[in-house]
Amino acid sequence: MSFFQLAIILAVAIAGTAVVTRRRVSMPVVVGELGMGVLLGATGFGILDANREEFKFLAEIGFILLMFVAGTHVPSFATLDKHDLKTGIFRAFLVAVVSVPLGVALSKFFGTGHSALYAVLITSSSAALILSALGNYPLDGPSMRQMIPQIALADAFSIPVLPLVLRPDKLLHTALGALAIIACAVVLYVVLKYLVNNGYEQRFRTWSKAKEMVLELRISLVIIFLLGALAQTTGVSVMLAGFAAGLAVGAVGEPKRLAKQMFTLSEGLFAPIFFVWFGASLNLRQLVEHPHMIILGITLGAAAFLAHIVPVLTGQPLTIALMTAVEMGVPVAAATTGNQLGVLHPGEDAALMLSALITVAVTTVVATPVERVIQRESAAMTSKKVTHKRT
Q1: Which chain regions cross the lipid bilayer (predicted)?
Q2: CA-CA distances (angstroms) from residue 333 to 159, 175, 269, 274, 287?
């Protein structure tokens, strides 16, 4: 791969971002990057060859960094109120329970044999997308406090389980690899916690900043890539390695300087490469050859909303319930890893992405009503505080 080709990839990623972030469209930037990859890849003009090893490797770096950033965005349960935590966990459990029969029904109807995979996809939420979309609004209202543990648990459950359901024939081998990565992440958390509690981490960051060595970023990348190497060795997707490392760092408290550096490295270079590569690797023409996969994608998206509105029975506002159905990281991971393992049917990867894009499109529509719920609850809390002060 030449510098010219790399420049073209990043340029088309910028073009895709510009299209979907217009005020009238306002969709996540990844949709534009995926779209440009589809246009220039196997589905479209064939300018970008997703089978080139250099392109694949750069994309895999983007994938693992993307999952690391997603892991750092998962809120810590330790900071949440017990009632809100219990409510959020119960709602996530309800969604998971409903997802199982839906996954089985879809698998049998379409004859794919992927009931467990569909159940995991339906259960999943994208905490990173949801929190990013609501980042400018206060999240201290009861609906938000209860939604955060719900989507965090859905993320924390779906990503480790996904490699297991993709290769049920090698369940023990995959489970041992996943456990090894999780164990390393736990050790990383313990070490980081010790360094933070004893002041070593703060002194190290101060010294690194003074010497302009960017050592936090370098060491973080070493850890991420070592976990990625472990994932490759054990036959587990690198998504789990990145996500587990992100969870460990996020649980301790990611320094703002490191967060900015990692965000810049990921979103500025490697994540766009990954999404353009992934779009280029998709062959949407297979949907024409296998039209039932279009129906699969639509019904998967519908099933996600059906499962996620069940918590409405527990008092969750409908618009927020619909918002929790948004999924992107898990379907992308499922399609990417499934293709690499050769376990998906022709056109099934595109069907998974179609279901994800449906959830993104619908939740984009309900974003404004959700904002109204947040503002109403925030105003009510402010009013209560004023009344309490007066009394």
Answers
A1: 61-80, 92-110, 116-135, 172-192, 262-280, 292-313, 350-370
A2: 8, 17, 19, 11, 20
Burial bucket for residue 378 (CB in 10 Å: 0-12, 13-18, 19+): middle
Which residues have CB under 8 Å from 209's CB, separation 6+? 257
The class of domain 3-390 in CATH terms is: mainly alpha
Name the token pair of 281: 């690797």
Paired tokens of 100:
């199982």
Residue 113: left if φ>0, alpha if ψ -120 to 50, beta else—which one?
A: left
The C-alpha atoms of residue 111 and residue 132 are separated, in whole angstroms, by 37
Nearest Cα neighbor of 189 from 247, 243, 148 is 247
pTM attached to this predicted model: 0.81
User: Residue 41 contacts by C-beta under 8 Å, 6 or more apart in sequence?
Assistant: 47, 48, 49, 50, 279, 280, 281, 282
Give residue 73's Cα distance to chain centre. Answer: 10
Distance (Å, whole) CA 351 – CA 331 = 10
The answer to whether 137 and 375 have CB atoms below 8 angstroms apart is yes
Identity at 179, one-letter amino acid code: L
Dist CA 272 CA 31 (whole Å) = 11
Contact 269, 33 (CB under 8 A): no
Nearest to 154 by CA among 119, 183, 184: 119
Q: Which residues contact 164 (CB under 8 A, 6 or more apart)?
A: 171, 174, 175, 178
In this structure, the number of other CB atoms found within 10 A of the CB of residue 70 comes to 26
* pLDDT one-digit tens code per residue, 255-294: 888 888 898 898 888 989 988 998 898 888 888 888 999 9
Please give the Cα distance from 263 to 277 (Å, whole number): 19
Please check whether residue 162 is in contact with residue 221, taking contact to mean a CB–CB distance below 8 angstroms.
Answer: no
- Residue 8: which of 31, 30, 39 has the closest Cα? 39
The string of DSSP letters for 298-323 reads HHHHHHHHHHHTGGGGGT--HHHHHH
- Residue 329: what residue type? G
Residue located via tokens 């306002």: 26
The residue written with tokens 């990145």 in the block is 242
